[in-house]
From TrEMBL:
One of its GO terms (cellular component) is extracellular exosome. Residues 242-258, 736-749 have a biased composition (Basic and acidic residues). Residues 715-726 have a biased composition (Polar residues). The keyword Repeat applies. Keywords: Repeat, TPR repeat. This is Cilia- and flagella-associated protein 70.
Amino acid sequence: MASRAEKIDRFPNKILINVSEIQNLKSPRAEPLNVFLRFEYNDGQFSESGKFDVTDGSPRPVDHVAVLAVNASDPVQIDDLGQKPVLVTLFEAVPKDKKQKEDKSTPIGQAVIDLWPLLKNETQASIASPIHAIPGSYLEAQGEQNQPSLSFTVSTEQPLVPVRDQANTNAVRITLEGLYSPPEAWLAGGASFVYTATLPIPINDDKETTVVFTNGTLRAAADATNKQKRWPDAQSFDDEQGELRSKDDREFRTNSEKTKPQVVWNLERRCFLLPFGSASLQHQLTRVPFIAVEVVRTATPTAPKGKKDDDTGISYHGVVYIETAPLLYPGATRLRGAYKIVPYNETEYKAKTKRAGNVIDEAMKIANQLFDRSSLTATKKDTKLTVDKQATAAATSVPKKKTEAGEDASSVTTEAQQYVEHSSYVTIDIVLDRPIIEKRKLSDLYRKVSDLIPPRPPYPLKTNSAGKAVDDYHQQIKNVCNLILDEYRKVCIDDITVEGTLPNDQKRRKLLYELNSTGKYFAFKEQLKHSVIKITFISQLYVFLLDEMHRSLNKSLNIEEPEPVPPSRNTDPQLRMFALEAESNGDYLLAAHYYKQRLAQSSDKLRPWLDYAAFHLLVNDLIKAEECLKECIAIEQTNSTVLILYAVLNAVLENNEVADLFFETATTQDSENVIAWSLYAIFQKHIGDEKNAQITLAKAEKLQRAILKHEEEQTASANIQLTSPISDEKREEEEKDRLGAEEKEEITKSSDSQLNVASKSRLSRSSRSSKQKIVEKSKSTVNEPITTRKSQDISSVMEIEKVTTKKSIYLKSAEFLLKYNLAAWAEKALAYEFLANSGKDQQVEITLAKARILQQDFSAAESHITQALSIDYENVEAWALWGHVKYLQLDFEAAKGRYQRTLVFSEKPPDLHTVYIRLGAILLSEVKESSYSEAKEIFLRACRYQPTCTTYLGLGVACYRMNQYDDAEEALTEANFLNNQSAEVWGYLTLICLQTKRYIEAEQSYKYAIKLDLPAGPLLDEIKTVQHQVGFGNPSF
């Protein structure tokens, strides 16, 4: 009894397999077919049903319950449940004679029950399993359409894995597809050899299971039985982490898998890990950088059942080292790819796996058992049954121990060296149910961000109802009463010290005297006043008074429709343009003034704060830039641009933990943002996390390839449209429409309201005529190519291909950073660009030049610009940048030539406004009549492109120098309208008033110029000279 109880304790968990019925099983003869079911698990029989008859294939109830006893706390048995099914064999019962010693029952079919669902939080599962015909039985004649089947219900009373442990379990699926490009010497062996692969998987702290893939066979590439398990997605190479991923490797793999012989396994091994096994796997992957998969060739066993060969002839001992770093990336659950096979070397093996020895001996014991079973079954019994058993008994758990390979592991054999010579490789796929390192949820990341930067609360809503006003009045009365009582108590206390008690009337008068003499009476009165006013304005009395007032006004006045309120003089886009213009002119105080105006107008909007942060990054005030970005995050936590910038800024400030948090939040919130992934990879390299950086970079490159593919498809469709024949009339109409659209776009690019005001009310006739001349001139110059458009149809296709250049992830990241004045990290991104894509690229050189200009390294910037022009001499952006460099170096003559060349090109630079302003300023400084005329044209074009105070000021100065005082006054008035705080504008208005003999206006303009701190210089000297000449305009005269 004790042994029985001990046996029950060893297997406390019971799995009930209830066979309800069998369908579609017909008797091959006229009489009924007598059959029974035998249940086997892990090479042992544990149940057998009673015999029953079947006839015509109709559903036949069976009602047999098989009980499988297991110990769910044993990690070895749990692992067996995950990868070994229950085999249900259908036997035809043959009557047994008394003289007959053995049962002559014949197996005719077999079904499989997968117990995996019981490990996945389920206590009951219904299964309909087909009965596969055993070769040689009559079931083969029925065909797949009439295939019989069994209906099962598998259940347990309690979950095999306790509910408290289910969240900490894990499962590993390992699929070994095949070995490709094998050594040529294998071809001569044919079917006389089998191929085995093995690797260890830990299941707890002191045990591991040896995963064995055996029965690999060498087959031709065209063999239809290969049936390779291809990855489900089309772009398999993009998602792989193996060693063979380059373009040349892809071509080699395609050729090897389609034309060369290969060893085929196509097996999947599942390992279920309890909580301590999952923790052990995590410890193993974090401690050991590689998983070693050993590959060997052995002779086909020929020993009979129950015996083993003395020498299996192990040869070609190779190893595949799979790097485990990709599985340690947060959220990663899959590792797949093609890995090279190298000869086994004991020293290298120990160094990479940190194991005392290999597992090939233990693996061969398991493989030999399978060989014995398969060889005998293949000759005496059916093949189908054997294959199923081989697939179910592929691994056995053993304690960790030091093994000896039985060979000189320190030397590399000549035969194993052939793996390297033929570039042999295997394809393997490892999938985890749960990641080793959990990826933080977006909600958790947002909560951490909120802890660092609390979101801005909404503005409180003030509820001023009549009831609330009365309640406030009552509360104030209570407060005042308490204060008066305190004063009265003081009077009473003072009265106690005096002989005799004062009458109450005298106490009242004394209290009033104290309140009036100390001023407390008026203080109490003021305290009540606010609540009284609220009652007056909110109560019914106020409503009544307002109604009566409106009735009186309606009787005495005629109410007309009021004029619409004019829009704000300076809108947010205009102020942003003014600030950027001040930045380009180096007037950072004025730029800060405009940014503050934007914040005053819309402090609850994200864009003004973001631009203000970029301004502080320009002037290298990192602390204020950080505060501005905090405001941006407080306004909108989900904006990926702000999250990326704040992460980069913290990386610059060496706050690596905060930077990592915001990079992770940005990539999680916007998982398709190439720039976010690219900069995250650069940051990980910056802090020395090379392994995660490679995986992050691979994700960025995958997204980039998808974007480029989409762009190529769009370009191809555009090319198809361009190559289609178009009539001459239609082409001319399209050209006219295009010119009109371009003219309209140029005139109203970013401030339509501004230009409308300028064109309707403040431009003089001469200015308008000058503008019309320029427009007519531009139309005439652009209309010339219309007649020769037929010869340019082919070149237009080339232009589109030229415009849609393929920018790398590093170049995109650098351009993004330069947009917000983070030059140091932009240079870092471009350094990786040079490492990844060696060779000349004009866009990279231009981006480097921009970074150098921000760092005020003008000689290096000029070097990059000349390098870009050596690649493409007509690059308009390079010419504009070269002009900026010369302008900042105060070489105005050289800058003038480069700006003029920039404007000659049909394509315009991105910073055309800056080119106009600086070229116009250079022309005005030359003090020549011809230069003034050219400056006037440049500033007119600038006013049409983007009207600002500076453009109209330049236009006004040019007209003034040409003695066109009316036009100059109109332009300067427009400049004053856009910015009435410009001392220079008031100074030139002073000169115009002096020249036109307007005494009062001249003096007023001069006062404003002095009040706004017109600096001492040529303009102020000129004003004073003219004042002395005309004898007025200065209040001191």
